[in-house]
UniProtKB/TrEMBL annotation:
This is Uncharacterized protein. PANTHER family: SHORT-CHAIN DEHYDROGENASE REDUCTASE (PTHR42820), SHORT-CHAIN DEHYDROGENASE REDUCTASE 3B-LIKE (PTHR42820:SF20). It comes from the Eukaryota. GO terms for molecular function: oxidoreductase activity, acting on the CH-OH group of donors, NAD or NADP as acceptor. Belongs to the short-chain dehydrogenases/reductases (SDR) family. Gene3D superfamilies: NAD(P)-binding Rossmann-like Domain. Transmembrane segments: none annotated. It holds the Pfam family adh_short_C2. InterPro entries: NAD(P)-bd_dom_sf, SDR_fam.
């Protein structure tokens, strides 16, 4: 545990679900939330072995549930089991996502809809399911909760490739804006975080390199100099949106990208 934050536990007593929590941004955020005193951190992911390892390493407050967000029934069960075990749900970090799964980068003239079905199922349909069922649980429990979704810095650009990924992440921003309007009357805040390119295992596998390779590949595209974007920087942004520091922030897309311009 980071001793520097022991006296500043911003999530004390909070019950949290993090999808895609077994690695990358999700894992970093799970550890950060635990450090900030969360009562319960539920990691949801398809990576069962990795998820169990992360939950065990975090400690008693953290558990793992295998969940495929493309299956709405599994999302329902994830939320229901969390509420049954802990009595409520305060924070949903809907972070599960995939990169372009096409064998080659999609272009608008040759767009293969079937090749992008899986990507949209995870990045859009899965995101909607997580927001929907988290919000229902919060309303039923009378919790003025916080829902945070993961979009991407490319959602704010006119990047042409990979177009299917860009479209899916722009949909997340649209979802956040619509959901925040609809859930405001219940005191539920909905926001998203949009990271720039970062060395997650998913990104490294997609680009066939390591975290340092990702940093070198994109450093020249960031106009903010003096360092490189790390997982902890994104976790800090998610923490801000999840906790009471952002009490009156909703419908917002918090971009954490060092000025990334592709």
């Amino acid at each position: 545990m980071n001793s520097s934050i022991l006296g500043n536990k911003k999530l004390e007593g909070k019950v949290v679900i993090i999808t895609g929590g077994a690695s990358g941004i999700g894992e970093a955020t799970a550890r950060h939330f635990a450090d900030h005193g969360a009562q319960a951190v539920v990691i949801a992911d398809l990576q069962e072995e990795k998820g169990l390892e992360v939950a065990f390493s975090i400690g008693y407050c953290c558990t793992f549930i295998k969940c495929d967000v493309t299956d709405e029934q599994q999302v329902t069960s994830l939320v229901d089991s969390t509420v049954k075990a802990h009595g409520k749900l305060d924070i949903m970090f809907s972070n599960a996502g995939v990169l372009s799964m096409s064998s080659s980068e999609q272009s608008i003239l040759e767009f293969d809809l079937e090749a992008s079905d899986k990507l949209f199922a995870v990045n859009v349909r899965g995101m909607i399911a997580c927001v929907k069922h988290a919000a229902r649980a919060m309303v039923e429990c009378g919790v003025k909760g916080s829902i945070v979704c993961t979009s991407s810095a490319v959602a704010n650009t006119d990047a042409a490739r990979p177009i299917d990924y860009v479209l899916s992440k722009q949909a997340v921003v649209g979802l956040v804006r619509c959901a925040s309007r609809g859930l405001g009357e219940h005191g539920i805040r909905v926001n998203c975080v949009s990271p720039g390119p970062i060395g997650t295992p998913l990104m490294c596998n997609w680009m066939h390199t390591n975290a340092e390779g990702i940093e070198k590949a994109f450093e020249s595209m960031n106009f903010l100099k003096g360092g490189v974007l790390k997982l902890r920087n994104v976790a800090d942004a998610v923490l801000f949106l999840a906790c009471e520091d952002s009490q009156f922030v909703t419908g917002h897309n918090l971009v954490v990208d060092a000025g990334f311009r592709p």
